[in-house]
Design brief:
It is built from nine helices and ten strands. The protein has about 250 residues and is of the alpha/beta class. Helix 6 links the parallel strand 7 and strand 8. Belongs to the ABC transporter superfamily.
Amino acid sequence: MNPDPKTMPDPSAMISVRNLSKLYKDFIALDRISFDVQRGEKIVVLGPSGSGKSTLIRCFNRIEPHDSGILSIDGRVINAQTDLTQLRATVGLVFQNYNLFPHLSVLDNCTLAPRLVKKTPRADAEEMAMRFLRQVNIAEQANKYPIQLSGGQQQRVAIARALCMQPEVMLFDEPTAALDPEAISGVVGIMNDLAQQGITTLCVTHEMGFARHIADRIIFMDKGRILEITPPAEFFTNPRTQRARDFLDQMISY
C-alpha cells in the first residue's frame, strides 16, 4: 500500500498528493500515489525504468495531466482549470533531453521566458541569466548556440534556464545524466542553495551517489506505485522492501 492513505491534501505542505493515478490506455503509469513534500525539501525519486518516476514529476506542471486523485501545490489544487502559464512559472522542469531552442543563443534561451511571461526587462533578465550561468559554470558559452555545445554543457544551460524563472518548485529529470563528476558537484551545490532559499526540489535520477548526497528523503517506485519513502541513510543501508534491495544490488553491481 502507498504511504499516507488520507484522502485530503495537506494545506501546509508545498506539494500534497492523494491517490494520484495516470493511465495510458490499459497501462497504469501511476497507481493511487499519496505523499507530501514540505517547503525546501529535496526529494529524490528512484526506481527501475518504467516505474513511473518521470511521469510523476511531469504531472506536477501538467505536462502529463493526471487522470484521478488530488494534486495540490502551495495550497492550490492542480487540475484541468489551472492556468498553465502561471503554474509553469511556479514549477520549473529541467528536461532529460534539454529542450533548448536551437535557433536561440544560450543567453536568449535563458532570458526568453522571464521576458515574455514575467515581463522582466531585457537587461535585468540578462543579468539574472548570467548569474545562473556562472553558477553552473557555463557563462563563457553565453553567446553560443546549443548545437555548438556538448550534451553536458546543454544540460547545464537547461538548469540555468529553469532557474531564471525563479520557481517555487524545481523538478529535475535526470539532471546529471551527461555531466562529469565536477559538474555533478556543481548541481549538488545549486540544489543545496535552492533549498536554503526555500525552493522545493524533486529529482529523478539513476545516480546513486548523487541521490545519497542530495536527498532529504528517497521515494522508491516500482510499477507505478511508491514502495518506500525513507531518509537516504536508511534506504541505502537498510531498505524496507525486497524490491528495493534487489534494485540496489543491481545498481551497485552495474
